[in-house]
Amino acid sequence: MKAPKSKVILKVIKGLLLVSLISIFAFSIKPDSFKATQVKYPKVKAAYSKKWSGLQKELKDKGVLNENFEVHLRNFKYEKQLELWARNKGDKEYKLIKIFNVCALSGELGPKRKEGDGQVPEGFYEVSWFNPMSDYHLGLKVNYPNQSDRIKSKGSRAGGDIMIHGNCVTIGCIPIENEPIEELYIACVEAKNNNNNVSLEMYPCRFTSANWTALSNKASAKNIKFWETLKPVYAFFEKNHRMPAVKVNKEGDYLIEN
Fold first, then answer.
1. List 173, 188, 205, 241, catalytic entry
2. Between 254 and which of 11, 54, 229, 239 could a Cys-Cys bridge form, CB atoms 3.0 to 4.6 Å apart?
């Protein structure tokens, strides 16, 4: 027995409504929604106007296409340098795009272990938040404290609000002046816009033989022990230009997963 024509029409209408709702939902989560939100802020819009075409060229010169790329950062306290690396989605190796000078530094070589110690963290992190209205021009929040930091802080308040930002002032943050932060910020926006997290390595220095000898002669045994858990990751990236899989053991030490 055939269904009445009115019921068939009703089913067709319901099907069309369902397709429409799916389309609306898909549109609401379109890939460029993060970037579209960011460029509504005047400082981000201005940064794109000034810096994006030049940065696109630098990326293209290194074989990185702006349609979908990932960003990786490396920070070195002693050298006062922040490296910007990028790769096409699916590529194994990152390419070094440029190096920014860190224009101010607080604390000493060694990890951050408690709130108010003025230390810049050391370890492996991600950019967890973008601040287009920062008092320090533009800001990228580091997801400190991570699992290792929480274990190593041993009940103390670990602190937080560690940012990569503009302006040359800092208490535990990483400032790189206003012009460079505009380039770095929009590079990270582009990566995040394609649902790619921005990873970050933070070291006391480059672990060269000379630097390690100097650290071993001056640093505390506690810091040296901690740095020994960072060295294999540093060496892996130096050789392979990509991050290994890293885990944290119950003592809060970093280990490369086999």
1. 173
2. 229
